[in-house]
Known about the structure:
Elements: H1 3-13, H2 26-45, E1 52-59, E2 65-67, E3 75-82, E4 87-91, H3 94-100, E5 108-109, E6 113-119, E7 125-130, E8 132-133, E9 137-145, H4 161-176, H5 184-203, H6 207-210
Parallel strand pairs: 4-6, 5-8
Antiparallel strand pairs: 1-9, 2-7, 3-4, 3-9, 6-7
Helix pairs in contact: 1-2, 1-4, 2-4, 4-5
Amino acid sequence: MTYLQLVNSVLRRLREEEVSTVSENSYSKLIGEFVNDAKRTVEDAYDWTALRDELQVSLVADTTTYSLTGSGTNLKVFNVVDETSKNFVQYRGSAWMDNENLVTPAPTGKPQYYCFKGVDANGDDTVEIYPNPDKAYTLTFNSAIRTADFTDDADRLTVPSLPVIQMATALGARERGETGGTSAAELFGLADVSLSDAIAYDAAKHPEETIWYS
């Protein structure tokens, strides 16, 4: 569903007139904020299949720090693959990385480890690679990438829509103070059930992540 469709779905549930654009009036703008709040909550609740994607980083010789362009900061990395050498690159903590970098001169070779090093000027995560690349390599970060807040009417939701709609409706009902029969607490309960059901369906696609075998 698009941002505008989500807002109108919430407005109907609150017995309000639909709008032709989210910015049509102050109330539709408010509902748009609630939709974004609900979207963030739902996206953060689980590593949805729809949010999983690959981020590719091109390494060059003697450069150790790289931006994960388009990642933002709400990123979860599942694994990192060195496509050039056909190996996995392992995570190490910053203290371990700092200790290894005390060696002079710094060792060079194919990438073996990475750690997160902060955020760049665009608000994307940055990573440090060890050892210093001795040539060009391509790394693939298999990740779950949360989306930015919606701003345009045509921005499209990729995670399940019902939990987002129900949670935004509950936020709107609580702000207004009445719903004509259903309390805000009941609406939040419905949103929680919808979110739980949606997670269960999506988790079934990745049983290796949720089922423990002895």
